[in-house]
Amino acid sequence: MNRQINPSTGNATVKGGGPVVLQVVPRLIAGGAERGAVDIAAALVAARGTAIVASEGGPMERELKRAGAVHVTLPLSSKNPWVMYRNVVRLAALVRKYGVDLIHARSRAPAWSAAAAARRAGCRFVTTFHGAYRFGSEIKRRYNAIMVAGDRVIANSEFIARHIRENYKVDPARIRLIRRGVDLGLFDTERVSAERMIQLATRWRLPDGVPVVILPGRLTRLKGQPLLIDALAELGDLPFRCLLVGSDFGRAAYRAELERQAARRGLSDRVHLPGQCDDMPAAYMLADVAVCASTTPEAFGRVIAEAQAMGCPVVASAHGGAREQVLEGRTAFLFEPGNAHALAAAIRHALELDAAARERLSREARAHARANFSRDQMCAATLAVYREILLAAEAEASAAPGGRAAPSGTAV
Questions:
Q1: Going by CATH, does the domain composed of 189-372 fall within 3.40.50.2000?
Q2: Which of 210, 201, 181, 397 is nearest to 289 (CA)?
Q3: Among residues 21, 75, 250, 342, which is most buried (max CB within 10 A)?
């Protein structure tokens, strides 16, 4: 038996069909874990399953409701032991109330509560390992290890799968590699109108005919904005406008630091921080090169897949998930991480491509992204993992002496 939840009221009614899956994330503001939770919730509903997401909330709640999923507000970003224990009780109550078959955890603090709730309520548990979490002590390693405690552990890149195998005691047979995907219906050059590009160019005050370099991502030092500014200072002989696109999420001091750095490097009129962009497909269409200058390895780096899907040349740090996303020299140009001179050389090379070379790169980048990094592929593979776990649970139930209740639905 399964349940259909009214997203407006939270009330549940019995239905047939796919399983009930509860995903847990700290909040729904921005980021890969949050985007993954929303995408999978929508795919689950489309496959006649029931999707619940628990978090502290945020702007992405609206997307969940539009998809027919339900959001439950819980203090899941807290690392306070008492709050985490209370979250065990709250999540276990959700499992019983809605007949949850499987809990999917995407971050460490909520994963500790979710794993305990799954044991208490008798449902299955899966995790997605979204980052190469640092550990400076055995205590920190043990804290991180909750992310390999699932019946299956999803790694969002081969880089992360290797990190898990090398640093945690986990049976490799439990790891499933599912690379992040982008919405190819949204990131499609054929669907971006000239009007959208004109509106964005006007808002950003882009001068006609001047090449555009963008670095999309939240304003945080890990994304490498200072490194890019240093690199651009070596390109004074080239015309360009650089946009550091992304929200500072209240980090006004860091934003001011970047503005001062640009001024010191003589780039005040060439480097701009326009804030969050609500039309990234149009932004990639306006850009002559998209930069991923992360100073620490990205687990995946969705910007790279998005830019390739839009046919935009990419320059990226040669580490982490970036290395397995691109065709070096054909869809992107990699540079030594943290090396401003190498970054400047890669940007120069991308900006100086002639029209024919740029068209070849654009065509191959779009084909590469469509073949390997679609949201539909990611969602299908994740639902297959759910199905695998729940079918195994059914087999265990039928083999157990006396039997026990099987999961409510496995048709995903």
A1: yes
A2: 210
A3: 21
